[in-house]
């Protein structure tokens, strides 16, 4: 053994230890006596007092659940409310024979094997005299049957409580989300007291984001019980306080129009009120009925949704990330104008191929017939006809640093900060991003792909709408949001950011070019201009779902439909005084002009029509 | 690890060949532990509202604990002595990790998520600190000099503060006691002892104003006047003393305690379980349990006195005194003479990690008790 200092003396050390251990033993015994005396004092000397107190201890405190805040659209139409639901519960202590009771009940109403299994499982975990649920959501006739037979069903009770209800079913499923039973994981994080009267919690969407406001405050009642714990009389009550009501920017009529316009196709649309950044419509199709989740979805139903090829549970509007394709061109054009990289006079000759020095393989224009857009392609024409060759050159000359810098000012490559959980950020590629994500340097070829919204670039439909709104408002930066007011109190606008610095004549030029996309005879979205009595500015886009070689021709007839290109459209209206901006995608819709733009037109029409009466009033 | 650390005297000539010796089991210790587990499961059944679910889970924890104890017992005390610093440093690192990456529930951050399971480093420290301090001091001339006392104190206080920050006052108190007992048993001079007491007294205001959180202060105030806070922490104390007091000499009978069965008593199957035992089995039940505890501690003291090395003596002595701290803190808090700090009653309260830790400690005691004398 190692020692510093003097040599050791085992005998002395042992004796010292024994003495110390003896002291420790004495203290232990002394404290044991203290404990024993305390328990003697409570249990023997003061036994009478405590026995009386325990006998009189018949006051139970029971939680009173608050009713969850309601959600309205901007016109006051209910989107989420609470409805009474009646459950059949059993208190075994009050039944002579639970088995018998169950079989009696089975004869009266339909009780499934699953009900019984769950009941038996919960029975093992409950405390005596606690109600255990046997069957949820009793129908009116079932309640009547039970009421009539109540006298011979000792131990069975129907209990009423409020459950969440979504009257519009699948229309708002993704934006509003749903509540569901509190699960094991959530019990670990929530404050037990706040949820003592509630068994559900916001799972996704607004229901989750505004959980704290919607929940409300639990109340309590003191109940006198008899000696066996049965409630006899309410002594005192602190009422529960309902949760806050939310009013949204969403317009359920507009939402319906947008939803129906997809005609069952997969896709997503976001419409923004430009003045406020409020979301007017937010659609992801296909959708599902959120009411299924409220009391617990059946495995069958859930599997059906989960394994469907159309992925109805997936919120494409804020979680779907797609290459923006040509919809990015107005933004990149604005950057090049602002920094004098191209002028409005600058023209190119487009023969359908773009060669970059040192690289043999050319970049081709997949969107247009071979042979290119011909002579004299200026920026305006490149926007109207969506010329890739023009933008390859523009992108290379502008450089990725400027593109990335402005891209993020227009809301790309980062979460927009909307008041919803689980938003995805998309990708606005840059040198730093590529180094971080791929560990590689940035190549010129990457810039070329980026300049037509392909390559690494990814955007969500929400980001497309935000970009469109920022172009429409000539650079006003507003954070998109869904909730307009809470309990009638208007919510202040979230901190957006500095106005984007681009000179007025460039905005004018680009708005005109985007207007011609729709209104000129060569515009890619000209199909939607028939019978328009207001002006729409837009830009179509096509995003590859699979990669195509330069020498190969994209031929949809040879591909499965789920490999077809995605169709995109960004737009705003009316051009002179923009009020509403839209970003949308139709998955495998092929062409922005033919399949995406008509959906935007339907939404714009509905919006403009809804503005009419206010116009009359102001006149 | 030396080869002979694990495969010991199996073939040594003249070695004891009784199965208990070969498996390194201390029979009296094992029997007392089994009695405690039996009492624990019986009371738990009643305290959990007659839930077989909880009893089964607790029994599973106990089996896991017994297994852990057997494994620990197979290593020589020399192995624990050599490994203690490493285990201690590992524990300290994980405690720091908990501060940054810890997961937790209800405002406290105590676990590290290891993917497949959750690991609570503060539990490890309940064993690592006494072993490390004992190993450190046993290499020095005893009684220890100021420098060594200083190092040992620092080694104790570091984890104590880290655990108190989580916040987990109960566990940090246990860790503090274990370090203190190791230093005390090593023969700390009387002057130091007096100084320690003085410093402790002087530290109370500092703790009150700078370390304790509001809710912890509330609990101390509640102890002084439980009637003030009828619906919060005071409720627990009022209900638990009522439960204990109404038990009388022989109690209301198993599963017949109205306080616990009718849901008046909070935490009745975890920290406050002694109130259920007191209500249903009366003072006779409480004193019988105390007797079993004392017999267990007594057996541990005998093991400590008979141990062959200074390290073994210090560890055995420290673990047995610390075991009493668990009992005193829990029974004191439930009966209203100590503030509520969240400390389980050993082998009786429901809870997996505490049980496994306790058994592991007794595994080390068994390793010490069955170590053959070196020639």
From TrEMBL, chain B:
<dbReference type="GO" id="GO:0015648">
    <property type="term" value="F:lipid-linked peptidoglycan transporter activity"/>
</dbReference>
<keyword id="KW-0808">Transferase</keyword>
<dbReference type="GO" id="GO:0051301">
    <property type="term" value="P:cell division"/>
</dbReference>
<feature type="transmembrane region" description="Helical">
    <location>
        <begin position="192"/>
        <end position="213"/>
    </location>
</feature>
<keyword id="KW-1003">Cell membrane</keyword>
<dbReference type="Pfam" id="PF01098">
    <property type="entry name" value="FTSW_RODA_SPOVE"/>
</dbReference>
<comment type="similarity">
    <text>Belongs to the SEDS family. MrdB/RodA subfamily.</text>
</comment>
<feature type="transmembrane region" description="Helical">
    <location>
        <begin position="310"/>
        <end position="328"/>
    </location>
</feature>
<dbReference type="GO" id="GO:0008360">
    <property type="term" value="P:regulation of cell shape"/>
</dbReference>
<keyword id="KW-0573">Peptidoglycan synthesis</keyword>
<keyword id="KW-0328">Glycosyltransferase</keyword>
<dbReference type="GO" id="GO:0071555">
    <property type="term" value="P:cell wall organization"/>
</dbReference>
<dbReference type="GO" id="GO:0005886">
    <property type="term" value="C:plasma membrane"/>
</dbReference>
<keyword id="KW-0997">Cell inner membrane</keyword>
<keyword id="KW-0961">Cell wall biogenesis/degradation</keyword>
<dbReference type="GO" id="GO:0009252">
    <property type="term" value="P:peptidoglycan biosynthetic process"/>
</dbReference>
<keyword id="KW-1133">Transmembrane helix</keyword>
<feature type="transmembrane region" description="Helical">
    <location>
        <begin position="146"/>
        <end position="163"/>
    </location>
</feature>
<keyword id="KW-0472">Membrane</keyword>
<feature type="transmembrane region" description="Helical">
    <location>
        <begin position="348"/>
        <end position="368"/>
    </location>
</feature>
<comment type="pathway">
    <text>Cell wall biogenesis; peptidoglycan biosynthesis.</text>
</comment>
<protein>
    <recommendedName>
        <fullName>Peptidoglycan glycosyltransferase MrdB</fullName>
        <ecNumber>2.4.99.28</ecNumber>
    </recommendedName>
</protein>
<feature type="transmembrane region" description="Helical">
    <location>
        <begin position="59"/>
        <end position="75"/>
    </location>
</feature>
<keyword id="KW-0812">Transmembrane</keyword>
<feature type="transmembrane region" description="Helical">
    <location>
        <begin position="87"/>
        <end position="105"/>
    </location>
</feature>
<feature type="transmembrane region" description="Helical">
    <location>
        <begin position="169"/>
        <end position="185"/>
    </location>
</feature>
<dbReference type="GO" id="GO:0032153">
    <property type="term" value="C:cell division site"/>
</dbReference>
<feature type="transmembrane region" description="Helical">
    <location>
        <begin position="272"/>
        <end position="298"/>
    </location>
</feature>
<dbReference type="InterPro" id="IPR011923">
    <property type="entry name" value="RodA/MrdB"/>
</dbReference>
<dbReference type="InterPro" id="IPR001182">
    <property type="entry name" value="FtsW/RodA"/>
</dbReference>
<keyword id="KW-0133">Cell shape</keyword>
<comment type="function">
    <text>Peptidoglycan polymerase that is essential for cell wall elongation.</text>
</comment>
<feature type="transmembrane region" description="Helical">
    <location>
        <begin position="27"/>
        <end position="47"/>
    </location>
</feature>
<dbReference type="GO" id="GO:0008955">
    <property type="term" value="F:peptidoglycan glycosyltransferase activity"/>
</dbReference>
């Amino acid at each position: 053994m190692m020692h510093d200092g003097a040599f050791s003396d085992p005998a002395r050390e042992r004796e010292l230890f024994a003495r110390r251990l003896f002291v420790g033993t004495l203290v232990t015994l002394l404290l044991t006596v203290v404990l024993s005396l305390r328990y003697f004092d409570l249990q023997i000397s003061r036994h009478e007092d405590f026995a009386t107190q325990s006998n009189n201890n018949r006051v139970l405190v029971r939680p009173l659940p608050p009713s969850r805040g309601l959600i309205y659209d901007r016109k006051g139409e209910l989107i989420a409310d609470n409805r009474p639901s009646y459950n059949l519960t059993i208190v075994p202590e009050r039944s002579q024979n639970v088995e018998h009771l169950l079989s009696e009940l089975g004869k009266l109403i339909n009780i499934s094997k699953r009900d019984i299994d769950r009941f038996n499982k919960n029975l093992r975990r409950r405390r005596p005299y606690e109600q255990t649920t046997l069957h949820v959501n009793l129908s009116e006739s079932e309640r009547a049957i039970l009421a009539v037979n109540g006298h011979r069903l000792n131990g069975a009770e129907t209990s009423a409580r409020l459950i969440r209800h979504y009257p519009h079913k699948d229309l708002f499923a993704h934006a509003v989300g749903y509540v569901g039973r509190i699960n094991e994981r959530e019990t670990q994080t929530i404050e037990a007291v706040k949820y003592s009267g509630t068994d559900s919690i916001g799972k996704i969407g607004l229901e989750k984001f505004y959980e704290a406001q919607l929940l409300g405050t639990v109340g309590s009642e003191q109940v006198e019980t008899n000696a066996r714990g049965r409630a006899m009389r309410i002594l005192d009550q602190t009422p529960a306080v309902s949760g806050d009501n939310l009013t949204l920017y969403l317009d359920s009529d507009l939402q319906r129009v947008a939803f129906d316009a997809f005609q069952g196709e997969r896709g997503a649309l976001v419409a923004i009120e430009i003045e406020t950044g409020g979301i007017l419509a937010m659609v992801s199709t296909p959708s599902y009925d959120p009411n299924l989740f409220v009391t617990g979805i059946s495995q069958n139903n859930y599997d059906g949704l989960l394994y469907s090829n159309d992925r109805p549970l997936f919120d494409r509007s804020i979680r779907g990330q797609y290459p923006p394709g040509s919809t990015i061109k107005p933004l990149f054009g604005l950057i090049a104008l602002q920094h004098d990289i191209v002028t409005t006079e600058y023209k190119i000759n487009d023969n359908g191929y773009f060669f970059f020095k040192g690289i043999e393989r050319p970049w081709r224009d997949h969107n247009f017939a071979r042979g290119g857009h011909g002579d004299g392609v200026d920026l305006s024409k490149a926007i109207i006809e969506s010329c890739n060759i023009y933008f390859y050159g523009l992108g290379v000359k502008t450089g990725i640093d400027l593109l990335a810098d402005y891209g993020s000012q227009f809301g790309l490559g980062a979460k927009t900060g909307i008041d919803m959980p689980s938003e995805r950020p998309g990708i606005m590629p840059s040198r730093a991003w590529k180094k971080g994500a791929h560990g590689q340097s940035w190549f010129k070829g990457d810039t070329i792909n980026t300049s037509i919204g392909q390559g690494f670039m990814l955007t969500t439909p929400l980001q497309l709408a935000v970009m469109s709104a920022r172009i429409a408002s000539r650079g006003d930066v507003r954070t998109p949001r869904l909730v307009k007011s809470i309990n009638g109190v208007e919510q202040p606008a979230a901190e957006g950011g500095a106005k984007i610095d681009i000179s007025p004549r460039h905005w004018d030029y680009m708005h005109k070019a985007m207007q011609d996309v729709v209104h000129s005879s060569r515009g890619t979205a000209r199909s939607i201009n028939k019978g328009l009595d207001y002006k729409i500015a837009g830009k179509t886009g096509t995003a590859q779902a699979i990669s195509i070689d330069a020498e190969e021709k994209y031929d949809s007839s040879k591909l499965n439909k789920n490999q077809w290109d995605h169709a995109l459209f960004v737009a705003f209206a009316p051009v002179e005084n923009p009020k509403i901006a839209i970003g949308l995608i139709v998955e495998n819709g092929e062409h922005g002009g033919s399949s995406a733009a008509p959906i935007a037109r339907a939404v714009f029409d509905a919006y403009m029509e809804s503005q009419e009466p206010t116009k009359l009033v102001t006149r | 690890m030396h080869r002979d650390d694990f495969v010991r005297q199996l073939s040594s000539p003249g070695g004891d060949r009784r199965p208990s010796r070969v498996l390194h089991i201390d029979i009296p210790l094992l029997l007392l532990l089994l009695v405690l587990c039996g009492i624990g499961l019986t009371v738990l059944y009643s305290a959990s509202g007659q839930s077989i679910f909880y009893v089964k889970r607790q029994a599973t924890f106990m089996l896991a604990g017994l297994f852990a104890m057997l494994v620990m017992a197979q290593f020589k005390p020399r192995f624990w002595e050599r490994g203690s610093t490493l285990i201690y440093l590992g524990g300290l690192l994980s405690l720091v990790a908990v501060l940054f990456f810890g997961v937790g529930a209800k405002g406290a951050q105590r676990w590290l998520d290891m993917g497949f399971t959750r690991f609570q480093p503060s539990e490890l420290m309940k064993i690592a600190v006494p072993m490390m301090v004992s190993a450190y001091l046993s290499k020095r001339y005893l009684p220890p000099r100021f420098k060594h006392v200083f190092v040992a104190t620092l080694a104790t206080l570091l984890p104590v503060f880290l655990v108190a920050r989580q916040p987990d006052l109960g566990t940090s108190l246990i860790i503090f006691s274990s370090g203190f007992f190791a230093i005390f048993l090593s023969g700390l001079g009387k002057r130091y002892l007096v100084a320690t007491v003085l410093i402790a007294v002087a530290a109370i205001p500092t703790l009150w104003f700078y370390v304790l959180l509001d809710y912890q202060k509330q609990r101390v105030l509640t102890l002084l006047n439980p009637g003030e806070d009828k619906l919060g922490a005071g409720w627990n104390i009022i209900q638990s003393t009522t439960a204990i007091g109404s038990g009388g000499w022989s109690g209301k009978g198993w599963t017949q305690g109205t306080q616990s069965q009718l849901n008046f008593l909070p935490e009745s199957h975890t920290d406050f379980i002694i109130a259920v035992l007191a209500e249903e089995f009366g003072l006779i039940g409480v004193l019988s349990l105390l007797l079993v505890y004392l017999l267990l501690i007594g057996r541990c003291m005998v093991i400590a006195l008979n141990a062959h090395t200074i390290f073994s003596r210090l560890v055995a002595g420290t673990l047995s005194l610390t075991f009493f701290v668990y009992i005193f803190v829990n029974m004191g808090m439930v009966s209203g003479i100590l503030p509520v700090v969240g400390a389980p009653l050993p082998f009786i309260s429901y809870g997996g990690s505490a049980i496994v830790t306790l058994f592991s400690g007794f595994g080390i005691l068994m390793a010490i008790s069955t170590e053959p004398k070196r020639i």
